[in-house]
Amino acid sequence: GYGGATAAKYVRKFSNYTADVTLIEPNQNFISCPLSNLVIGGSKKMEDITVSYEGLRKNHGVTLVKDSVVAIDVAKKQVKLAGGASLFYDRLIVSPGIDLNYESLPGMKSQAAQDSILHAWKAGPQTVALRKQLESMKDGGTFAISIPLAPYRCPPGPYERACQVADYFQKHKPKSKVLILDANDDVTSKGKLFKLAWSRRYEGKVEYRPKHNLTDVDVKGKKLKFEFNDDIKADVLNVLPPMRAGGIAVKTGLANMNGRWCEVDFLTFESKVAPNVHVLGDSIQIAPGMPKSGHMANQHGKTCAAAVVAILSGNEVSQMPVYNNTCYSFVSATDVVHVASVHVYDAAKRTMVTVPGSGGVSPAANPLEAEYANAWARNIWADMLV
Predict the structure, then answer these.
(1) Is residue 126 domain-shared with residue 255, that is, in the same domain?
(2) Per-residue pLDDT reduced to its tens digit, 229-270
(3) Does a structural domain hold residue 146?
(4) Which residues, 6+ apart, have CB-to-CB distance to 207 below 8 Å?
(5) In whole angstroms, how far apart are CA 302 and each of 22, 137, 174, 227, 321?
(6) How many domains does the chain have?
(7) Would you place residue 294 in the very low, low, confident or very high pLDDT band (cuts 50, 70, 90)?
(8) What is the reported pTM?
(9) C-alpha to C-alpha distance for 130 and 120, rounded to whole angstroms
């Protein structure tokens, strides 16, 4: 993904192509979560958000292994692959992404339930399946999206998805409605801009309800059950359960923060519990104000790559990392808003802090930022994979 592929490429680049890098990835192609909501809304196709990993091999000499890691032996510096092979390492970079945690939702624990009530929070088959559910829904039906308590992958993502579905309904199913059921007290990112879109662009078509903490799902009855609110029935349910670090991080003990997120040293991204193992992206215990985003994972990848090369070559690791984050959200097929921030390392606090006055949000949704958003995607995919 955004963290691991970036790290693989930049360890090669920063080492002047002297370090041997192996990328273990089960998929042939990278599929981007950013912009995947546009596939659900109908303005993009899956091929628009899909890029091959082959550029890393051809252009940068990264060894590609199409497999997944099932065990990490920290003492032996060895990983075991699902296919049965084992690989040794000097430094291991793990970018496991997120997994969906259905433990608090009894009705969603079976695979059949998860295949019926989708999350589509990992871009791929579920993205297409959710789009098909919307296409099959009758005009006059209701789409309900349930949002977990933060932190979760991509804070503005659920609200962008609601906009994309509303945009599709407005054009093709004008009697239909979008219901946003948020466990948080309010919209977690770009709140004013999203609420403006819902009230003006999609007047009467989008309803936002905060403080709706989901406790269970009646899959057959298509009902959402909440801690303090009445059950809600809808024609298409999109349930985003609580999230945690990807399975390998939990299984190997890297997710040492409440068994959920991975604690790291922000100068190197080395795990606080596993020496010589570095962890990136959405799986880490984030610093204050640092979102779980693809752009941020790309920054993690570069910082980690520079640190790993410095360590392997006996040089000092930079003590002043600076990250930026930019996140674009499509409130329609053509109009976009952004949020941006800059983060620096605070040596006293040993964490990243937001630079006061840096970044900000769009004054209003506009079509120019749609051009910026598409250019951002092309550029960051090239930065990672070409």
Answers:
(1) no
(2) 999 999 999 999 999 999 999 999 999 999 999 999 999 999
(3) yes
(4) 177, 178, 179, 180
(5) 16, 43, 45, 42, 10
(6) 2
(7) very high
(8) 0.96
(9) 7
